[in-house]
Amino acid sequence: MTPHIESNKEDIAKTVIMPGDPLRAKMIADKYLTDYKLVNSVRNQLAYTGYYKGKRVTVFSSGMGNPSMGIYSYELFNFYDVEEIIRVGSCGAFDKDLDLYEIVLVDNSYSKSNYLEELTDEVNNILSSNNDLNRQILDTANKLKIDLNYANVYCTDVFYNHVDIDYLRENYNCIATEMETFALFSNAKKLDKKASAILTVSDNLITHEETTSEERQNSFNKMIELALESIK
Ligand code: HPA
Fold first, then answer.
1. SS3 call for 226
2. Which ligand 1 atom is the nearest neighbour of the CA of 156?
3. pLDDT in the model for residue 216
4. Is the pLDDT assigned to residue 213 strictly greater than 90?
5. In this predicted model, what pLDDT tens digit does every residue of 43-99 receive, in sequence order?
6. Residue 206 has what pLDDT?
7. pTM over 0.85
8. How far is CA 93 from CA 2, 61, 129, 146, 204, in A?
9. Rounded to 5 degrees, what are φ and ψ at 183?
10. What is the C-alpha to C-alpha distance for residues 207 and 223, in angstroms, rounded to an integer?
11. How far apart are CA 57 and CA 34, in angstroms?
12. Could you tell me if 86 and 196 are in contact, meaning their C-beta atoms sit under 8 angstroms apart?
């Protein structure tokens, strides 16, 4: 038990899939897991542990933004002995040719967040995802014939920001923006754990196209299947 998680230690798997939305965690468990049970409902931050094709996995919602992701991923890594976390979420595209519903595998996360500095005293604004996990995800995508954009993202603390897209593209090769990878990768770095992130494009900041909720669900399923099939 921690201040935010009521689960027994043995009820959390070594591998965790993390959507932002608690109801997405429920949807993933209902649709994909067998023999599963609810393992957290503190603050309605729903989590379920079960099996996907015989592999034990926990689906734990992170909430939105670095501080929320920071709390849950820290507690899972540090107090529940979780070894690897794959975030599954959405992102806003910085490139007019990055279409809605395309999938991004995050290479590096660039952020102005001071999360890492507060956590470790290290001053660093670019954090990488885990190579082993990425290899598993890339190999699985290849096998399932899922196209991936393997690229950097900009992790912001401010959804309603004045983001300089050209600057982020030119200097940091960021192709999209989201709000949770930097805290996740900071915790993984400090605690010597593995973390990666798979994102689907939910809106395009250049063309201002947005997804409808039904279409979003379909592309979301493809991303979840990729994450679940990738784990060992
Ligand atoms: N900004 C930040 N996070 C996001 C966005 C966005 O436009 N779209 C999906 N997650």
1. helix
2. 2
3. 76
4. no
5. 999 999 999 999 999 999 999 999 999 999 999 999 999 999 999 999 999 999 999
6. 96
7. yes
8. 36, 23, 19, 18, 5
9. -65, -40
10. 23
11. 10
12. yes
**Cβ of 186 less than 6 Å from ligand 1:** no
Instruction: Give the residue numbers annotated as catalytic, written as ranges.
Output: 203
Q: What's the 9 CA to ligand 1 centre distance in angstroms?
A: 33
Contact 199, 90 (CB under 8 A): yes
Query: Of all atoms in ligand 1, which is nearest to the CA of residue 91?
Result: 9
Token pair 């994450």 is found at 227
**Measured distance CA(87)–CA(134) in Å, rounded:** 12
What stretches of the chain show up as alpha helix (H) in DSSP? 22-32, 66-79, 115-120, 131-144, 165-172, 181-191, 213-230
In degrees rounded to 5, what are phi and psi of residue 155? Answer: -100, 115
> pLDDT for 103-162, tens place per residue?
999 999 999 999 999 999 999 999 999 999 999 999 999 999 999 999 999 999 999 999
- The pLDDT, as a whole number, for residue 211 is 84
Asked if pLDDT for residue 217 goes beyond 90, the answer is no
* Cβ-contact 119, 187 below 8 angstroms: yes
Q: Does residue 178 have its Cβ closer than 6 Å to ligand 1?
A: yes
Which amino acid makes up residue 195?
A
pLDDT of residue 198: 98
Test site for ligand 1: of 66, 87, 90, 104, most ligand atoms within 8 A of the Cβ: 90
Of the candidates 57, 112, 118, the one whose C-alpha atom is nearest the C-alpha of residue 88 is 57
Question: Measured in angstroms, how far is the CA atom of residue 15 from the centroid of ligand 1?
Answer: 25
Indicate the residue type of 49. Answer: T
